[in-house]
Write a structure and sequence with these properties.
Helices cover 10% and strands 35% of the residues. It is mainly beta and 223 residues long. The protein folds into 2 domains: 124 residues, no CATH class; 86 residues, no CATH class. A 4-stranded antiparallel beta sheet has the order 1-2-8-4, with no helix packed on it. A 4-stranded antiparallel beta sheet has the order 3-7-5-6, covered by helices on one side. The chain is built from 3 helices and 14 strands.
Length: 223
């Protein structure tokens, strides 16, 4: 299943509805207060692109733990992007609707979380500046070389252009964010006539799709 198919017939697990309202930071640790919003109707499916910190709070190891932490009844499903197949693995926690196995949460990986109600979710943890994320180019077939990257609070890259520069501009084909209102992606390439001149800002705690032209072990610049 391609991203295009996913966004159309399978729009059940796509949409960014993530907004930051409060933040307290100390060294590399932080607390984020997010409004995880249910569907507002129309193209909005009530799904959030959530980026968790590298070092998550105790007990937050897999998709089931995440649903429980948000409030199980408030969450319809959690989905992770599968790079090799350009598709999504969805976990619902309900019988016969996504399988019994909750996938593990991984540092540097963002997730789609579909909400059935609106919740102010407190994200607690810290980012590890020593971690290098593997951003891999296409291995062929369905693999487009895209990573669903978890942007964290302490990175210095403030927008899509800065992120591409930090990774290495020539190594990155584009950076894309999900647009909740239109159930589509906004893509920035930094090249003329291929994505527009304006780099969108990056929001701590949001996930972005980063498509690679080469493979890079990326250690984000932090403050």
């Amino acid at each position: 299943m391609t991203k295009k198919t996913f966004l159309g017939a399978m729009a059940v697990v796509t949409a960014v509805a993530l907004t930051g309202s409060a933040l307290v930071a100390s060294n590399m640790g932080f607390k984020l207060n997010y409004a995880l919003a249910q569907s507002a109707g129309g193209a909005d499916t009530g799904t959030v692109a959530l980026a968790l910190p590298d070092n998550r709070q105790t007990g937050l190891a897999d998709a089931k733990n995440l649903m429980d932490d948000i409030g199980f009844a408030n969450v319809t499903n959690v989905a992770k992007y599968l790079k090799a197949t350009n598709s999504f693995q969805t976990y619902t926690g309900r019988k016969n609707t996504g399988g019994p196995n909750a996938f593990a949460l991984t540092a540097g990986e963002a997730y789609f979380v579909r909400m059935s109600t609106t919740v102010n979710y407190i994200v607690v943890g810290s980012d590890d500046p020593a971690i290098a994320y593997s951003l891999a180019q296409s291995a062929g077939g369905a693999d487009t070389g895209t990573t669903f990257y978890a942007y964290n609070y302490h990175q210095t890259a403030a927008d899509a252009k800065a992120l591409m520069d930090d990774i290495g501009f020539a190594n990155v084909t584009n950076v894309a964010k999900y647009l909740k209102a239109t159930n589509s992606f906004q893509t920035y390439t930094g090249r003329k006539n291929t994505g527009g001149p304006n780099a969108f800002p990056l929001v701590p705690g949001e996930g972005y799709f980063v498509r690679m032209a080469t493979t890079v072990n990326y250690t984000p610049s932090h403050y």
